[in-house]
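Reopening closed ticket. The problem is back. First fold of the pair:
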Amino acid sequence: MEDIEKKSANLIMKASDTHASDIHFVPRRNDALIQYRINQSLVDGETISLRVLERLISHFKFVAGMDIGERRKPQNGAMEFQHNGMTISLRLSTVPTIFHESLVIRLHPQTSFLTLEQLSLFASPVQKLHKLISKKSGLLLVTGPTGSGKTTTLYTILQTLKLSSGRQVITLEDPVEKKNDLFLQIEMNEKAGITFAEGLRAILRHDPDIIMVGEIRDEETARLAVRAALTGHLVISTLHTRNAAGAVIRLLEFGIPLLDLKETLEGVMAQRLVVRYCPLCHGRCHRFCTNLGKRKQVAIFEILMGQPLDYYLHNQQQDEKQTYSTLHSELRKAIALGFICETEWKI
């Protein structure tokens, strides 16, 4: 009988060594497939039996403190893993399917903090980012779909702010993605009464300078985030919108008064992750190439701030005379310069 504990460790180590962001355990009628998300693409790994799948999922659920006996409801959990002297935070999610439970594990290396300069493919957005995060108060938003690198951007901004200014940083997350001694980090726990709304109220009484809310999910959280920004705090959070302008529309849909947005919203950063060409491979990198590691994956930014933001807040439409670099134009520029492959993007 295969050692499940050893096999589970090998799967995580393989994912870490190939810089995978997720491991997928996909149940099928007669077997199961293990896949790795590497540079945004799913790469097939090995095929395992349903019996091995069941034992692997039970092992991971046990270590992550999840209910092993519950297979009919979705569950979430978290655990940590040590590999090559590095702590990897693992986020687990299970859902029941018609064949068996499916498990996805997201990997968050705890020591891989980047600088703002390392985040962006181009230098010009970095200058705008530095200008935005120099604000003493207001609301900054990072938008994009799942897997677009919003969390990495948030942590990079927070670490830059803490190291440069020494201001008190408090985060409210679900769950805490990367543990950092520089911040006070609070994890949402609905069973203990720590919702985003209640947690944010508590943070406001804890003398913060900078507040990071993992995600603005509903009207109440949006109102509290804007209120915190109105009272002199710098609030940084994320929204799931396609572009920067969409964040303004979403906040208005949440019932935030336009006047409050004009007073607090300092900027919106929309982003996408792209895979750039590797100079050590003659042409496009193989998916398992480890020459540049995480440096192969960088962000394209669309930053709405200053006069274009003011115009949009007053008119809810873009001013042709005061254009800003959109995701579309940034991607086009990256393709024209040969940094990324055009076939990967439908523009």
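Second fold of the pair, where the issue appears:
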Amino acid sequence: TDTECGCGRRGCVEAVSSGRAIMGAAKNKLAGYSTKYIFELARQGYKEAEFLTERSASTIAELIVSLKLLLDCQVVVVGGSVGLADGYVQKVSKHLSIYSEICNVMLFPAYFRSDSGLIGATLWDRYCIT
């Protein structure tokens, strides 16, 4: 899409798939609700909420396909508040399944959940920075 991102560009993954983007795109009866609540409504079958969460997952799947083709990654770990939402990794996997087998990757939620970034940065500092 051509949604404006906080970085000033248009159509960034962040502008479509992040929690803030999902909340910002919520209209009508969903306007003003939290992303967490929108995900809950999607699980209950509310069509607008399903659209927003599926659009997010589809965009992440497209990003993963691009990364696979560019970097030949074999595994992708999904984190963040949206990425760790119940059922989100399965939604992304469903969208990945429409692509060619060459785009297949193993997809996992972040093992350390919301602490993954902090732990990764600590380990990076400890073992990778010289």
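Update: turned out to be a display glitch only; the data is intact. The helical segments are 13-17, 19-25, 35-43, 47-71, 80-83, 88-96, 116-127. The chain has a mean pLDDT of 91. Please close again.
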